[in-house]
Amino acid sequence: MLIRRLGPLWTCAALALASPALADDGYGLWLGSAREQGASVPVDWTSDSPTLRIAAEELRRSLPAGSRPVLLARADDAALAGQRIDRQALGTEGYRVQHATIGGRAVTLVTGATDLGILYGAFALLRHLDSGGDPANIALASAPQTRLRILNHWDNLDGVVERGYSGQSLWDWWTLPDFKDPRYADYARANASIGINGTVLNNVNAKAESLTAPYIAKAAALADVFRAYGIKVYLSARFSAPIEIGGLKTADPRDPAVAAWWKAKADEIYRAIPDFGGFLVKANSEGQPGPRDYGASHADGANMLASAVKPHGGIVMWRAFVYADTDPEDRAKQAYTEFEPLDGQFADNVLVQVKNGAIDFQPREPFHPLFGAMPKTPLIAEFQITKEYLGFATHLAYLGPMFEEVLDAPTGARRGETVASVITGKADGHTLSGMAGVANIGRDRDWSGSTFNQANWYVFGRLAWDPGLSSQALAREWAVQTFGSDPMVIGTVVAMMMRSREAVVDYTGPLGLAHLFATGHHYGPGPWVSDLARPEWNPVYYHRADRNGIGFDRTRTGSNAVAQYAPPIARRYADPRTTPLEDLLWFHHLPWDYRLADGRTLWEEMVRRYDRGVAEVAAMRAQWATLKSRIDAERWTKTDTFLAIQQREARWWRDASLAYWMSVNGLELPAGSKAPEHGLEHYKQLRFPYAPGNPH
Ligand code: BDP
Fold first, then answer.
1. Which among 168, 215, 273, 561 could bridge 443 via Cys, Cβ 3.0 to 4.6 Å?
2. How many structural domains are present in the chain?
3. Using one digit for the tens of pLDDT, what is the confidence trace for 321-348?
4. Distance CA 61, CA 32 (A)
5. Do 64 and 161 share a domain, yes or no?
6. Residues lining ligand 1, CB < 6 A?
């Protein structure tokens, strides 16, 4: 009765195990490389479903010899009557895994209120064992803290992934719906193993064609593959689709014909995909159409779509990432200004999707002021897993600490409230809640462009499940499953990971600087750029450096963006003395010779941090070198090569940036700091017309 699917995940796992010297191409992700082949431990289940069969197969194949037999059973199964399972605590997706004696037989019981909960429990059991958990002491229980744990694919219909650095889109729209690449199931399996339960298939910069019958059929084919893994399909909806593919003259959300078109479209989608999740919408942002084109509000637009999917149980995720070229206001303020007044006006199946920071996925941004400011609206946090501003796929930057920093940030709105408590719905009693991540997945053999980028997919899923988990513990959990249990490997890898994101901050833009990237592709430095059509596209808009000082004054004497935060936070950010150094120039324009608490000048500290970032990459590379004989050659060599690229490029970032700052402030480098390798003009004329991920 067990299904047989001996996919490539298992094949490469078997190969990788034979010896660390043998090639491992990374296809197995955290589920393959370090895992022993199982000993066919007996697994029984009390009812049948495709989901339970997947759970059984996972366990049977991977549980180590000598494990107890496993019983998979729903919590309400009569066989568990004596087990005193707290069904309330399970929710709909939670699990419980424990040793039990059932019908006189000693088993490991994996239970949940639903089959999906049981599948999550099966993965939790394997994770427990893979990461060194005691097989004799099994008592695992967990339920997700958010309802929507969802990937956003910025995948275009032609296969190009916007801000994608791992090859073409995984979805082969051309051969769908007929050909269902086995990789689609492997994708779903990997997601289920970390609790991800939704995927938006197409780019937020959406094409209306995604909503035509042929593409609905293609999306339905993917949904058919994903269903047993508990993954729902969502689509990005182009707001002007009623005009482009519906033959209407307007997309005004208040026009009954427009509403009727969307209702009919939703009905059509649900006929093909009965468990369709709903729509994600980018409206009136960066040239996308939206309700503002007709003088209607974002709430009008979102609610009209929400009522179309409501009868089917669908939801709408409406993005707050808006800024307008006609708006002279500080870009960091615009989303709040537009959305905060709409709190209370959204339908109950709408979530407003808010990026982690107020500008745009920079290596560091203070948390977005909308968190804590819209208590009547469920907010879903949007993080970028793909590293558009952190060195693409090549640089090693573990994003766990960045996600954690934002999730743990107190909003100041109420005692104890954090971004995490807002997005789990706990702060305001919302049942809709969630975390979205812009996927870093493509058709590269290793899925994410490098082994370490896989960790960012992993940590996103695990934190979306429980934002209270520690990014360090998750780094370890990932590393053991990915590389095996050699303590020297794990210690080194985790240490590298935990410092890696700060290193990128240091060499790209320390002390709260942001948006210093070269035009369009965002690859490499461009702090000098000042000639783009919209002011807020230019790095000079963000750093405001001149002979006297640097930084964006967002206090009362400047844009007063600090006032968008709740009073305790606003007070802290209003004063450079109480603003964390990490965010200093985000909020303040300060003289180059401004004295920091430790006695250094701002300029000295800035240079020190650029140097520290470069040194950190050199250190990571040296640490990686010590693992050469302990990691399979293929993954070791690729990582080593990428670290060499990162080292070169960290130096480039530092040199180009310092050359530019010196051209502005006329200062010398502090003693002991190396002069940039080239003059400023050299850096300014570098061009990368074919950098990946850049929309054309
Ligand atoms: C920016 C990207 C752009 C996206 C936009 C968005 O550069 O490609 O379309 O975000 O989130 O970071 O909509």
1. 168
2. 4
3. 998 777 789 999 999 999 999 999 999 9
4. 12
5. no
6. 162-163, 204-205, 282, 286, 321, 360-361, 388
For residue 285, what is the DSSP state?
A: S
Q: Round to whole Å and give the CA distance between 114 and 111.
A: 8
Please return the burial class of 7, using the count of CB atoms within 10 Å of its CB with bins 0-12, 13-18 and 19+: middle
Write phi, then psi, for 425 (nearest 5 degrees).
Answer: 85, -5
Residues 49 and 2 in one domain: no
Is 330 an annotated catalytic residue?
no
Give the tens place of pLDDT for each residue, 105-136.
Answer: 999 999 999 999 999 999 999 999 998 899 99
* Ligand 1 center to 370 CA (angstroms): 19
Task: Please state, in angstroms and as integers, the Cα–Cα distance from residue 352 to each residue in 199, 306, 314, 315, 411, following that order.
Answer: 17, 12, 15, 11, 17
The residue written with tokens 């058919």 in the block is 224
What single DSSP character describes residue 443? S
CA-wise closest residue to 628 among 638, 616, 618, 614: 638
- The answer to whether residue 106 sits within a structural domain is yes
CA of 649 to the centre of ligand 1 (A): 23
Structure confidence by residue, pLDDT tens digits, 265-279 = 999 999 999 999 999
Tell me how far apart the alpha carbons of residues 225 and 212 are, in angstroms, rounded to a whole number: 20
Long-range contacts of residues 476-479, Cβ cutoff 8 Å, at least 24 apart: 476/131, 477/127, 477/131, 478/30, 478/454, 479/455
Q: What is the average pLDDT score of the chain?
A: 94
Please give the Cα distance from 223 to 274 (Å, whole number).
9
The CATH number that applies at residue 114 is 3.30.379.10
- Which amino acid residue places its CA nearest to atom 12 of ligand 1? 360
Same domain flag for 157 and 57: no
Q: Are residues 77 and 179 in the same domain?
A: no
How many angstroms does the Cα of residue 71 sit away from the middle of ligand 1? Answer: 46
Q: Which stretches in the chain have pLDDT values below 70? A: 1-22, 33-38, 696
Catalytic residue among 388, 417, 444, 605: 388
Of 142, 159, 191, the domain-final residue: 142
Q: Which two tokens stand for residue 196?
A: 């991800």
Residue nearest to atom 1 of ligand 1 (CA): 360
| Ligand 1 site-directed mutation target among 161, 205, 280, 334, most atoms within 8 Å of CB | 205
Tokens 């606003």 appear where? 570
CA of 203, closest atom in ligand 1: 9
Q: Which of 172, 224, 286, 327 is catalytic?
A: 286
Tens-digit pLDDT profile for residues 622-672: 999 999 999 999 999 999 999 999 999 999 999 999 999 999 999 999 999
State which amino acid sits at residue 693: G
In 3D space, the residue among 592, 585, 649, 655 whose CA is nearest the CA of residue 617 turns out to be 649
Indicate if 21 and 86 belong to the same structural domain: no
Is 172 assigned a catalytic role?
Answer: no
Q: From 203, 286, 380, 386, give the residue whose CB has the most ligand 1 atoms within 8 Å, as the site to mutate.
A: 286
CA of 439 to the centre of ligand 1 (A): 13
Query: Are residues 181 and 92 part of one domain?
Result: no
Question: Which residues of 578-662 form beta strands (DSSP E)?
Answer: 590-591
Q: Are 242 and 261 in contact (CB under 8 A)?
A: yes
CATH code of residue 359? 3.20.20.80
pLDDT tens-digit map of 54-111: 999 999 989 988 899 999 999 999 999 988 899 999 999 999 999 999 999 999 999 9
Domain end marker among 122, 142, 162: 142
Q: How far is the CA of 321 from the centre of ligand 1 (A)?
A: 9
Whether 553 is catalytic: no
